[in-house]
Design a protein that fits this description.
about 180 residues, mainly beta, 2 domains, 5-stranded antiparallel beta sheet, 4-stranded antiparallel beta sheet, about 0% helix, elongated
Length: about 180
């Protein structure tokens, strides 16, 4: 991140140059397939991208990079609201998420980049997608409960788990009231 980086073929480098209506604007600054623009300048925080498409819309001149980084563990700086590149809690969706509640500054590990927006955009949200992602969430398809159901578990009236009732009384087993006489 802090030395010039020459990109291999099939890889492009992007910065984040803005946010509009809750969507990030990505700007390609280098492309391993473009002989004139293969190198990312030293000290530039950037994202790498590779796919089978051939797009050579490189803009090597940039001044508005909202990505920041450090070669040491650092509290984020450079903006008003901060995001880190990570997976969601379920580990299924990769993108930009708040590093702390409300987008507050957070401690970023060494050699990691963060996104620092200069102001909270209209409709600020905790997730911003990557290039090509449709990050407008319109609903929840399903909710999965990963806890295993405990079968044949007994509870007393105080809500304490009981292996097997040994005294008379009212108990609950599998969500049903059971009376032991």
């Amino acid at each position: 991140m802090y030395n010039d980086v020459k990109l291999p073929s099939g890889v492009a480098a992007y910065i984040v140059s803005g946010v509009n209506n809750g969507k990030l604007t990505y700007q390609k600054i280098a492309d391993g397939d473009d002989e004139n623009h293969k190198t990312v300048p030293a000290g530039t925080a950037f994202m790498l991208y590779s796919d089978s498409k051939d797009t050579r819309d490189v803009n090597p001149s940039f001044t508005n990079n909202l990505l920041h980084g450090s070669d040491t563990k650092t509290t984020t700086y450079g903006g008003a609201i901060y995001y880190k590149l990570t997976y969601n809690n379920a580990g299924t969706v990769f993108g930009w998420y708040w590093g702390a509640d409300g987008g507050a500054a957070f401690e970023s590990p060494a050699n990691k980049a963060w996104l620092a927006l200069p102001a909270a955009p209209a409709g600020v949200r905790m997730f911003l997608g990557l290039p090509g992602d449709d990050d407008d969430v319109t609903g929840i398809a399903s909710i999965e409960n990963k806890q295993q159901k405990a079968e044949h578990v007994w509870y007393d009236l105080n809500g304490r788990r009981v292996n097997t009732p040994t005294t008379k009384g009212i108990y609950f087993k599998d969500g049903r009231k059971m009376v032991i006489k």
